[in-house]
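Lab notes, practical 5.
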Amino acid sequence: MLALAWAFFGARTLSGGGTPAGPSARDSHAPTVRRGGAIFVLEGSPLRGRIAVAPVELKTISRSRVVTGTVEADPARTVRILAPVTGRVGELNVELGDNVKKGQPLATIDSGDLAQAVADAEKARATVKLTKSAMERAVGLNKAGGLALRELEQAQNDYRQATTELKRAEARLEVIGDSGQVSGQRKIVLTAPIDGTITALETAPGDFIDNATESMMTVSNLAKVWVTASVQEKDLSFVQKDERVEVSLLAYPGEVYSGRVQIISQLLEADTRRNKVRISFENPYAIFKLNMFATVRFFAPATQQVLVPSSALFMVNDTTSVFVETAPWTFQRKPVVTESDYEGATIVRGLEAGQRIVVRGGILLND
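Output from the prediction step:
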């Protein structure tokens, strides 16, 4: 066998380039024969007992990625409370964090604008009543021949204008009343539009409200919340709508909450190169609290991949390679491309299932 190996390769490489370097050198560098890129481990070499060879396997795996996230209120269950009129906050009936029921009083505003709106409506009602009477008289006189047609038309036009003004004034009061209960001439009591929790409070008794677009407070129904994950651009392949995810909260070590992807933002944030992904969770027992930090694990669809032990990989000059067995105890270095680690092994490209590679002791062949 040894003679055949000499004849096949035509050269022998010992640890000292052909000259024995002593017992210790012979123990650490087993005799091998090399030709081109092939390495043959000689029969009887102690190297054979230190090298393990195994076939490459194709396995079905489901990779995952873990990203950070936060608990947020569902925008569809969140209402910003705006003042429908300018005025001064007379009473504040809630505090930050309070739970409220639909229709519950939140705050009372004393408003001159409200008084003006009520006065405008009353004036419009009086004008409609007056112009209606004038029109009815004009119709009667016109039929009797005692009033010109032009004067009748003027009375009818005055009535139509008064009716239009009354509708406008009443519509204004209805809009104001949609936000609360109008009390008297000047006061409006703002009420909760939904069941929920006061999650933001930006006013206080005595505060003057002069901007109808600024929120006084926010009511959020937290019976259902979102966990919003921030996914790096390179990991978006792991995110699929309706795919399952696992969420863990720092507040509850060891607990894992299963959910499914509901919304994948179509806009990548330019500054962070991340994408917002939202998972909805029922929250009847208030386990999820706003602004809690979470870790979210996404699972890619199952695929078949070539997996090799990390011990089979060698890095030489920025190139990763393995030793492939081309014949019994004959090995060839083969470059491969590594993708990611998976359960103690590495996913690689460049190998085929069934090929036999060195999985242990390959360092002894590495030069």
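Observations recorded by the TA: The chain is about 20% helix and 40% strand. The mean pLDDT is 86.
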